[in-house]
Records
---
Amino acid sequence: MIYGNGVDIVEIRRIKEIIDNNPRFLTRNFSIRENLLFQEKQMRIETIAAGFAAKEAISKAFGTGIRGFNLIDIEVLRNELGKPIVYLNGKAKETAESIGIGSVELSISHSDDYAIAFAIAIVK
Ligand SMILES: CC(C)(COP(=O)(O)OP(=O)(O)OC[C@H]1O[C@@H](n2cnc3c(N)ncnc32)[C@H](O)[C@@H]1OP(=O)(O)O)[C@@H](O)C(=O)NCCC(=O)NCCS
């Protein structure tokens, strides 16, 4: 059963500016495993931008926004076929459990200028 859904779109150029001005953006908001994924993908800015959009989309699917947890508590990785897989850790996991969410389905897309993510939270 679906608990909620969320979508987020980001301008890729804006994420590039943020990273250029503050390289710690990557380690503050993305886990070690996510940073390794970015390295595997040659630090493609559209992948990073979509990773950011994904976390905001997931927070909307929770119905909370980024509240009570940090972006780094939501991990977006890939399965062996390249499909995005969501792992909830720390306070994001606690939030999900407290409102009855068991898992999150996620889809990502990007063009030259924009990255978009759509999340569906599934009831436990
Ligand atoms: C909700 C949130 C993820 C929105 O992301 P954003 O990139 O700022 O804005 P977007 O344009 O992508 O999305 C805005 C839409 O999100 C929706 N939205 C707002 N709160 C929401 C919530 N709790 N759950 C789901 N959707 C929400 C609204 O429809 C809003 O559009 P509207 O203002 O026209 O109604 C973000 O604002 C957030 O996490 N807020 C809560 C925490 C907070 O206030 N932080 C401020 C800094 S500490």
---
Amino acid sequence: MLINLGRNIKILKTGIIENASCPNCNKINTLNFSIYGGYINVIIIPSAPIKRTILVECSNCKKTYKLKELTPEINTNFKEQYKKNPVKNPLWQYTGSIILAVTLSFAIYTGIQMKKAEKQYIINPLIGDIYRVNNDGHYSTLKVKKVSNDTISIYINDMETNTYSGIDEINIDKNYNKTQFFTKQNLRDLYTKNIIYQIDRR
Ligand SMILES: [Zn+2]
């Protein structure tokens, strides 16, 4: 999850709504608008811009309005005026989001490519392939010892671990002593059931 470290709000633009009179005091060209905006900081990298707020204040009577409280005519005036010179979002405000999106899509892409490769690996085992297995929360490994046609001779790891990350510690030669025979179909079944959840090939 993203950590929202704070919002950076500032006035982006100010001006007078031209040719409009204050609904309160009827004086013309006294409606000052201020556009507030900014961005949310996600860990020091500015991320998505936040929604703009527009406040209008009459310089004569000091009454403040939200845009929608003013007449449709004044709103039209403002929109026409704003279109000519809008507030732009600098690209750097999006930097955080872009970095995040690129990182995520790369991770997803890599994951998909890995799974594609594994589907080939399980059909055609090679000596040295490591199968990471999850047997009800007990993690261990199998290692392909020999392949002859449909019979695969496989080392069973003597050790298991109950943490996902402990695999590397037990995946060592001296733990591979027992051998068991599998058919290719046996292996495919284990892979389909996600008992073999990852295949490492060097
Ligand atoms: Zn006024």
